[in-house]
Specification:
This protein has 202 residues and is an all-beta fold. Helices cover 0% and strands 51% of the residues. The strands form six sheets. Strands 2, 5, 7, 8 and 9 form a five-stranded antiparallel beta sheet that branches. Strand 7 and strand 8 form a beta hairpin. It is elongated. The two termini are 20 Å apart.
């Protein structure tokens, strides 16, 4: 939920001792859990959003150096579409030679807006419009495309309906060229369960 760069001065290095995070936006702090910061090659402990978002650290930073700070968090199920969250970061420490206290200015991070993912199915252009079908054959009768936005999905169940189940012995489901399964039509429906077909986001 935040990405920062801290740059030290040219006169001396710094021993970082405190990382403090502030959170704003329409997302309530009670809706945030497992907040942590990745700095340098280290990872802070995880904290609840409603708690004190300050971490004691002990990280040496030489003069004329840059260090990355990445902020992560988990949102609970109460977060809704359209809510937003922003962060601010302040880092404190002491000079390696002078031992003088040093505190960065509060850096305002990015604002993120929560967007609910979606998945839709459409008839693929490769689907046949009409065709002559010979008995005891297995022609392709339809192709469907699944489109996603903002999230990945795994298809677990698919239901196919037809008004011509009396002439179809079974439906053969394929993912590309790989056969996924076969089901008979019962009361004009063929139901596939227990699938695990991944659909990548966007």
């Amino acid at each position: 939920i935040g990405e920062y760069r801290l740059t030290s001065g040219s006169s001396e290095g710094v021993i970082l001792n405190t990382v403090a995070l502030s959170i704003g936006g329409s997302v309530s702090i009670s809706e945030i859990t497992d907040v942590y910061v990745v700095y340098g090659s280290k990872i802070s402990e995880k904290k609840a959003g409603a708690g004190s978002l300050s971490w004691s650290v002990n990280e040496a930073m030489p003069a004329n150096a840059t260090m990355s700070f990445s902020v992560y968090a988990s949102f609970n199920a109460n977060v809704t579409n359209g809510q937003n969250i922003g962060t601010g970061l302040t880092v404190s420490g002491v000079g390696q030679s002078s031992a003088a206290s040093i505190t960065s200015s509060n850096a305002t991070g990015q604002t993120h807006t929560v967007t609910v993912g979606s998945i839709t199915s459409t008839l693929d252009p490769s689907a046949p419009v009409s065709s002559l079908v010979i008995g005891n054959t297995m022609p392709k009768v339809a192709s469907f495309r699944f489109n996603t936005q903002y999230d990945t999905y795994t298809i677990s169940d698919l239901t196919f309906e037809t008004s011509a189940s009396q002439v179809i012995s079974e439906i053969v489901l394929k993912d590309g060229a790989a056969e996924v399964g076969r089901r008979p039509f019962i009361a004009n429906e063929a139901i596939f369960t227990g699938l695990s077909i991944p659909i990548q986001s966007n």
